[in-house]
Amino acid sequence: ASPVTLTTLQRMRENGEKIAMLTCYDAAFAALLDRAGVDVLLVGDSLGNVIQGHKTTLPVTLEQMCYHTACVARGAHRPFIVADLPFGSYQQSPEQAFASAAQLMAAGAQMVKLEGGMPMVDTVQFLVERGIPVCAHIGFTPQAVNQLGGYRVQGRLEAEAERLYLEASALESAGAAMIVLEMVPRAVAKEVTRRTDEMITIGIGAAPECHGQVLVLYDILDIFPGRKARFVQNFLAGAESIHAAVAAYVNAVKSGAFPTEAHCY
Ligand code: KIV
Ligand code: NA
């Protein structure tokens, strides 16, 4: 199959074909996810949790993100590869963000993801104008966990929801081609998606109405110890192999069977 590009993803959005995205941190899984039909691989800084055993994503370094991005890029051929800018590698200035993003792109990323709303608008524009596709990330943003006071749903209050609409709109205007909506009420994620013109919305604890869904690979394979979040589904249960579990996830996203109301807030 021909490689998934940003254009492919935009066409899928237009045609109402759901985008299946999973996190991925190494070459062997990248090849397996490729064969199982995953459209987008996210080299997430959640590797700080699942690979490194940290309590938060804050200690993850740019060098580590580049290493994992290169591993994934060597394993995958069809999927589009998005890599997270880790904490501290982009918040200081658009220039700092560009220098960091350039390293991720050189390692094999085709798009970079960064967390934050209004303070990131200028940075998104700076990167996009210089040829780096950007995925934004709003709602619950794990790098801000200490400020958000824990793993909590964002946008339950009307004023908070309005802020999310403004952030999404400003990030789209700045050129973000994609946005992750994490832990927001279904109605809010649906409304953010409805208000977009071209930006691709990807939900995690958000809404089936998003253009695509993402989950942490280890969560769908039930191999991350700790309590399971509401938005996670174990796709290994009942599957004959890891490949079958991942294919079941892809199928569930494509058919609209995942997420259900039980996975939403
Ligand atoms: O790092 C990550 O895994 C992420 C997703 C959960 C969106 O950012
Ligand atoms: Na992340």
From TrEMBL:
EC number in record: 2.1.2.11
SUPFAM superfamilies on file: Phosphoenolpyruvate/pyruvate domain (SSF51621)
Co-factor note (free text): Binds 1 Mg(2+) ion per subunit.
Catalytic residue positions: E182 (proton acceptor)
Binding residue positions for Mg(2+): D45, D84, E115
Principal location listed in the UniProt entry: cytoplasm
Keywords from the named record: Cytoplasm, Magnesium, Metal-binding, Methyltransferase, Pantothenate biosynthesis, Transferase
Subcellular location: Cytoplasm
EC category name: transferase
Amino-acid positions noted as binding 3-methyl-2-oxobutanoate in the UniProt annotation, renumbered to this chain: D45, S46, D84, K113
Function: Catalyzes the reversible reaction in which hydroxymethyl group from 5,10-methylenetetrahydrofolate is transferred onto alpha-ketoisovalerate to form ketopantoate.
Family (UniProt): Belongs to the PanB family.
UniProt subunit comment: Homodecamer; pentamer of dimers.
Name used for this protein in its record: 3-methyl-2-oxobutanoate hydroxymethyltransferase
Annotated source species: Hydrogenophilus thermoluteolus (Pseudomonas hydrogenothermophila)
